[in-house]
Amino acid sequence: MTISLATHLISVQQRIATACRLAQRSPQEVALLAVGKTWPASLLRAAYHAGQIRFGENYVQEALGKMAELVDLPLEWHFIGPIQANKTRLIAENFAWAHSIDRLKIAQRLSAQRPPQLPPLQVCIEVNLGAEASKSGCAAADAPALAAAIARLPQLALRGLMALPEAAEPARRRQRFHELRVLLETINRIASLNLDTLSMGMSEDFAEAILEGATIVRVGSALFGPRAAK
Ligand SMILES: *Cc1c(COP(=O)(O)O)cnc(C)c1O
Q1: With a 6 A CB cut-off, is 203 part of the ligand 1 pocket?
Q2: How would residue 1 be classed by pLDDT, with cut points 50, 70 and 90?
Q3: Is the CB of 136 under 6 A from ligand 1?
């Protein structure tokens, strides 16, 4: 199991490097976030020993259990799941990043609850590019005003945008990634911000996301294997 995990990690790193070459970008511009949801702490530990330090989790309680088991390792924890108001304190206290902020109320709570002795929580705004009613994320049209408001919160460091495009054919997803990058540039211009992060691309499409400017790719099954159906 550990051997195949190390092999998968090397393979994903090589595919990231290849996509960066194609995009004429430095591989240092793209961070690999290992998405560990459903997988046990022991597997994350093996990934750390194979060189991985950034981990993404979707469920607060599951993540806290793994953090406790892995407290001896210098890992960087990113929250990437939907954020309910009653979970903001645990996120503010335990994570380095939150990618999935979709409304001001959540950002205000995270800022107020971030312990002052910790560095600011690094955050992204999740954008619902397809405007699907069933999915989380703010509407693209609302993102500039939300970004301007979040940028003023003292204990948050707004870094950029995150998207989770619907499963569609690859050309369609690449178009969504492109839209997210254009939106980031628009926000930087009209809100006079300097956002530098595009969290986009997963196991199936991280290469396309890198071609469109992704700076964080969130990869689960390509590293850890297929998740059991829920
Ligand atoms: C599960 C998940 C991922 C990783 O998905 P894979 O297809 O397994 O790579 C990335 N981002 C979010 C928000 C997720 O929930």
Answers
A1: yes
A2: low
A3: no
